[in-house]
Amino acid sequence: MSELESSLGTAEYDKERVDDQMIPADNVHDKNSITFQQKNEEISRNQLDSMFTPILEFSQVFGNFELQAQEKLADKVLRLEEMKHQLDLLVELLVSSIQTRELLYKTAFIRRSKNLQKAETKVDLLGDQVDALIGLLEKIYTTLHQRSPVLQQHFESKNLAPEYEAATTELKGKAVLAKVNAINEIELAKRWGIQGYTTIYFFVNGVHMDTYYHNRKKDDIVNYIKTKMAGDLYTVMTTENAEHLLTAQSTIGLGFLNSLKGLKGEALAAASKLHPDVLFFQTTRVDVANMFLIDPEIKCPALVLLEKESKQLSHFVIDDFISLNKIPPMITYSRETTPLILNSPLKLLWLFAAVHDSEAKSIFQETARAFKGKVIAVASIRKRKKYVLNGELTLSNVKSFALDFLGDKLRNQK
Question: Gene3D superfamilies recorded for this chain (predicted)?
Answer without folding.
Answer: Glutaredoxin
